[in-house]
Amino acid sequence: MHYLDNAATTPVPEAVAKTMYDVLVNRFGNPSSQYQIGREAKVLVDDSRKVIADALACEASELFFTSCGTESDNWAIEAALWQNRRVGRHIITTAVEHNAVLEPCKWYASQGYEVTYLLPARAGNIAVSQVEQALRPDTALVSMMLVNNETGCVFPVAEVAKLLQSKGSQALLHTDAVQGFLKVPCSPKELGADFLSLSAHKIGGPKGIGALYISPRVPHPRPLLPGGGQERGLRSGTEATAQIAGFAKAVELRVEDLSEKLRHMAEIKAYCRERLLSIPGVVPVGQGAAPHILSVSLAGYPSANIVNELSGQGIYISAGSACHQGKASHVVKALQLDKRTAAGVIRLSFGPDTVKEDIDALYEALLAHKNSRFPML
Q1: How many CB atoms lie within 10 A of CB 354?
Q2: What is the pTM of this model?
Q3: Where residue 298 sits, what CATH number does that domain have?
Q4: Which of 49, 158, 166, 246 lies at a 20 to 30 A Cα distance from 208?
Q5: Are the C-beta atoms of residues 156 and 94 closer than 8 Å to each other?
Q6: Residue 9 domain-assigned?
Q7: Same domain, 202 and 275
Q8: What does the alpha-carbon distance between residue 99 and residue 101 come to, in Å, rounded to a whole number?
Q9: 239-260: string of b/e by CB count within 10 Å (b at 16+)?
């Protein structure tokens, strides 16, 4: 198997699975219970929170567990707009955010909010000047992802935070860092973010667990789920202790020799880019600086066909969100590519365990079948 879709999800290391199994079988107490195994479970949750907070260089008290990145994004948007309900009803975001941001913004637009969508350049980047031009006195929220999940472009979140401060804006800043965590610098303090969303399964953790950083600038966030008072009363519901422990273990594993892992992923990406662009008709899409995502296009060849053909050979890539029921994604549309290029966009994404042999297998498969198996548009 040649797995090249780590931006979609990542393999779970054995050590993470073993940690979760131990919690499920031997450390199954409810963290809200007052007897010993309950207290032990609470310590487990607290210790896990600190591990993840340390990786973010923030306080553990500023980190709240959620079920996934989508929930974190939704909560951040809701909390920011509630906090700034007297500031105004204007939102700034980008046209290439994950749907976990775009769909809530769409809903708020139906409730009377005005949303400004910033379009990327052809290379996929967003400029700080675009935010400056869109900023208004009634802007309540700026939501900008840290790394785009299709192009790998790194957005200027820290520079936007400095802009908001220099303008004296009351707008709160949210960043969806699901693709950025442990891939690019991702400290909310250094970024200047008021909210930062995470998801465990993008870094070798389990699915079904995420987190949201909330800045001290938001001293009384609106609770997402009122109930039994878990997560300091902001997100009630019995903690998913096994998933939380798995999340923390995945962070521990990824942080170890992180610089070497990032160097390796960047090297693999460069190797992949060089090999694929040597195939006639393959063109780059975007100029993403993140070390783990590369998008290219086999212009004129439907990406869904490419994905399905390679899957049959045990090579797993993605049209990402680049192909949905035969139509180009909102990210591809925003890049304003020509029809033939847009239709052939594929995304390759790498992890610490990706090797050059995986890239060679992809290259050989594309080269061998480009003219014989993939019908051109």
Answers
A1: 23
A2: 0.95
A3: 3.90.1150.10
A4: 158
A5: no
A6: no
A7: no
A8: 5
A9: bbbbbbbbbbbbbbbbeeeeee
Residue that is written with structure tokens 């365990």 in the block:
353
- Looking at the structure, tell me whether residues 281 and 199 fall in a common domain: no
Neighbours of 367 (CB within 10 A): 15
Q: Residue 375 contacts by C-beta under 8 Å, 6 or more apart in sequence?
A: 301, 302, 305
- Among 255, 279, 303, the domain boundary falls at 255
Here the tokens at position 32 are: 């809200």
pLDDT tens string for the chain (377 positions)?
999 999 999 999 999 999 999 999 999 999 999 999 999 999 999 999 999 999 999 999 999 999 999 999 999 999 999 999 999 999 999 999 999 999 999 999 999 999 999 999 999 999 999 999 999 999 999 999 999 999 999 999 999 999 999 999 999 999 999 999 999 999 999 999 999 999 999 999 999 999 999 999 999 899 999 999 999 999 999 999 999 999 999 999 999 999 999 999 999 999 999 999 999 989 999 999 999 999 999 988 889 889 999 999 999 999 855 345 556 789 998 999 999 999 999 999 999 999 999 999 999 999 886 656 554 44
Q: Kindly state the tokens that stand for 229.
A: 């008072």
Residue 16, CB half-sphere, CA atoms under 13 Å: how many? Answer: 22
Q: Which of 236, 311, 300, 261 is nearest to 65 (CA)?
A: 236
The answer to whether residue 330 sits within a structural domain is: yes
Instruction: Give the residue from 238, 255, 272 where a domain finishes.
Output: 255
> Is there a catalytic annotation at residue 105?
no
Q: Is residue 309 part of a domain?
A: yes
